[in-house]
Amino acid sequence: MESFIKEFSAKATQAILALPSKEIAKALAILQGVYEREGRIYVFGNGGSLALATHFVADLNKTVFSHNLDKHTRRFQAIRLPSTESELTAWANDVGYDMVFAGPLQNYLQDHDAIIAISSSGNSPNIIKAVELAKKNGNPVIGMSGFDGGKLNQLADAKILVTTPKGEYEVVEGVHAVVLHLIVKYFKNYFDYLVELGKAK
Amino acid sequence: MIIVRAPLRISFVGGGTDLATFYRQSPGRVLSGAIDKYVYVTIAEIPFKKIAVRYAEGERVDHPRELKHKRIREALLDLGLESHLEIGTFSNLPGQTGLGSSSAFSVALIKGLNLLKKNKIDTATCAEGACRLEIDLVGEPIGKQDQYASAFGGINVIQFNPDESVTVEPQLLGFKERLDLENNLVLFFTGITREAASVLTEQKQKTTSGINIETLKKMADSVSDFKDALFAGDFKRLGAMLHEGWLRKKSLASNMSNPAIDDLYDSALASGAWGGKILGAGGGGCLLFVVDPQKRGAVEETLRKVARKHGLSDADVIPFSFVHSGVEVVTNSAH
Fold it and tell me: B323 and A36: CB-CB below 8 Å?
């Protein structure tokens, strides 16, 4: 049993060490830009990735400001898509499952917004539809993928690819959670520093 | 109604190497950063067969060719927009401050007019379009750095290649490095405004005749050293490099500085600034200093005092932050 644990930990460690730091830096710069121009960030994925999206939205909207909630009146505006189960099932039932993200995204998307698409394979048709919509509109795309990155990694402006053999969902989703928390920690430190400098907005 | 805004920029090193007379011989490079001061362009459709334009002056004409405002006139003629429009502009700072406001205006105008024609152009196309408008259509003797700095936003190294292509390399500074940089910089408006063209015409002549080429090569080369010092947070070194650049720049054209600017500059250094430069083409506009945060108050006070001595009543410190966004559509209710 312990050898399995060690083997899995080694794979996860290897994937973390191989993270593309420049691409993550690009993602941080995209999110900083959206914050400055008071745009919105739409986050989505399928299954476990949708759960990651939900978790991340909560952290970005609240946790990063936690130390000084009263001092930051300007906050991130992150939204998990679709934002209601009713929309999810309506689009899936009436139009098709490939429209569950692109459909609701079309309602909201403005020029100053950005999206974060999470897909281990990088090839889920519903993810790609939404990414194509954002690209067509000129919005920055942060793509979090695994395996060989798939189409998502090709299309994204910030290409956060967790390189693994095909099918290693557990490692990919685990490392995606680490990257999302890295982003949360970066902005938490940033907003703390703004308060220290008396520059919080 | 369409409202587009584009940021002004602070240029650190390499200014002048973005002129075609130089980069066609040897690649030009600059390092600059967009700041939270903007030029806004508003475009409204009107039910009259007129073109109305509002800036420091107001114009109302039957055809764009009658407009006095060169950039709007040439842009409208080029895009085939002949009537039923009112175009206005607002900004956080006056023009001719050396912060690239006229190019920011062109960038916002190109983005907005294309949007009006249901044409969503990307950032690079917008920057190229603004360069074409100012340099080719209006015939300004200016370079290409401001249009790219404003369209892209953020802190960038921008390279101008002999084949006219331009590469923009974002400098991904962390928040600490960026906020510390802001904390070490003082931006001071001298209260003197000038047309960039007047300084650049002499500089261009000297470059064409080969006098300035070696100096400009050194300026383009200094970008990578400046970038290293920036990432290392070595502000003293950044100050020293700006000072060297300022001395070089003064040699490029005789009207780059004047006694009041020299007095402001020398007094700031005497009060503890590590170095500085004039922003933009020179001859007036803003000065930028790298300052030990402990001495910031003293340097700002000295600058205000010296400006008063020279009767520069509009002179003052301008607080600013760097921004990550470039040209952006604020409102588009026309779609």
Answer: yes
